[in-house]
Amino acid sequence: MQIREARIEDAAGACHTLRRSIAELCGLDHGGDPDVLERWLASKTPKTLAAWIANPANRVLVAEEDGAILAVGAVTAAGEITLNYVSPDARFRGVSSALLRRLERGARALGNTACSLTSSQTAHRFYLARGYVDAGEIPGKFGTARSFVMTKQLAHED
Ligand SMILES: CC(C)(COP(=O)(O)OP(=O)(O)OC[C@H]1O[C@@H](n2cnc3c(N)ncnc32)[C@H](O)[C@@H]1OP(=O)(O)O)[C@@H](O)C(=O)NCCC(=O)NCCS
User: Fold this and answer.
1) What residue ranges line ligand 1, CB within 6 angstroms?
2) What is the reported pTM?
3) At what angle do helices 11-20 and 46-54 cross, to 10 degrees?
4) Which residue has a Cα nearest atom 37 of ligand 1?
5) Which of 32, 59, 65, 116 falls 20 to 30 Å from 106 in CA-CA distance?
6) How many angstroms is it from 138 CA to the middle of ligand 1?
7) CA-to-CA distance for 151 and 131, rounded, in angstroms?
8) What is the pLDDT of residues 84-128, one digit of tens each?
9) What is the domain-level CATH number for residue 36?
């Protein structure tokens, strides 16, 4: 498995992984409600992914293995982690942990001393275990019940 910068030609594969991750792993958030899921997935198209990858204000990374995209993540120039989605086929193999470390390293390279994110209910425990602290609970997007605003101070040596 390697983690690398996403390229425009990754857009379709990254989109497929992102959509499967939301639909198949984030049941705690969408509760299997087709309307919530439809709203959540509406903007997750290859075209949108290509635009995110092309936008210089984002750093989009993919985890790739044998030509398959296992996960996609993104961080903004301001240190906000906006994507971190793993394929159901690669869950609990350390992929998101490795991707998150790389996103944080990228944020620090851009001069940030902290990262922020809005966590799904699904990933809340994962982020707590990786040093993020709760800064508040907000109503979820797309009709999901709640999300967690979280922050983490970045250590110098990571
Ligand atoms: C939770 C999730 C982010 C973890 O990613 P992963 O690549 O599977 O996880 P890793 O193998 O790197 O790390 C495993 C960690 O997941 C967490 N975890 C373990 N079981 C879990 C479960 N049933 N549900 C949620 N998290 C769990 C633990 O923190 C575990 O770490 P530990 O083994 O040190 O205790 C991922 O499985 C997931 O569900 N993603 C869905 C998309 C999503 O919600 N993304 C975040 C958007 S803000």
Assistant:
1) 21, 25-26, 84-86, 91-97, 119-120, 122-123, 125-126, 129
2) 0.96
3) 120
4) 91
5) 65
6) 21
7) 8
8) 999 999 999 999 999 999 999 999 999 999 999 999 999 999 999
9) 3.40.630.30
Structural domain containing residue 9: 2-111
Q: How many domains does the chain have?
A: 1
pLDDT tens digits for 39-48?
999 999 999 9
Examine residue 120 and state whether it is found in any structural domain, yes or no: no
97 CA → ligand 1 middle, Å: 8
Ligand 1 atom 24 nearest Cα: 122
- Indicate whether 155 belongs to any domain: no
CA 73 to the chain's CA centroid: 4
43: three-class secondary structure by DSSP = coil
- CA gap 45, 35 in Å, rounded: 17
pLDDT on residue 155: 84
* Pocket test residue of 92, 124, 138, 151 for ligand 1, highest count of atoms within 8 A of CB: 92
